Amino acid sequence: MNNTIYQAKIHWTSYIIPSIKFVIGFIAAIIGINYWSIPFVLLSLIGLRDYLENYFTDITLMNTKTLTIKQGIISTYINDITLNRLESIEVYQSLLGKIFGYGYLKITNLGVSTIYKISDPLKFRKEILDNK
């Protein structure tokens, strides 16, 4: 049984910086000699971790009037927020965000804020407000 009303997608631009970190770190680690390559290996691993964190993040609006945020690579963190407990939903879109179709979605629940860079944040905000 599928209870999904809408699933937000992490925008492709969220993968640019982690990819750059990984590539620079990987190339510099290969070129580097001995212990000088250790910081570059770490940079590469951090880039890989950030990339995978973005890839394994799901933000789903369910028809049970809950917003489910699931994150994790090896261990999983799941946060279910009932829509009637949401304090605010803020959207920020820069000029580039409007051109490329992404924005930052800030979800505030009981004083805790979470920010995500997603595709089409205005549509997701509208879906949340329509189902609240």
From TrEMBL:
<feature type="transmembrane region" description="Helical">
    <location>
        <begin position="22"/>
        <end position="46"/>
    </location>
</feature>
<dbReference type="Pfam" id="PF03703">
    <property type="entry name" value="bPH_2"/>
</dbReference>
<keyword id="KW-0472">Membrane</keyword>
<dbReference type="InterPro" id="IPR005182">
    <property type="entry name" value="YdbS-like_PH"/>
</dbReference>
<keyword id="KW-0812">Transmembrane</keyword>
<protein>
    <submittedName>
        <fullName>PH domain-containing protein</fullName>
    </submittedName>
</protein>
<keyword id="KW-1133">Transmembrane helix</keyword>
<feature type="domain" description="YdbS-like PH">
    <location>
        <begin position="63"/>
        <end position="119"/>
    </location>
</feature>
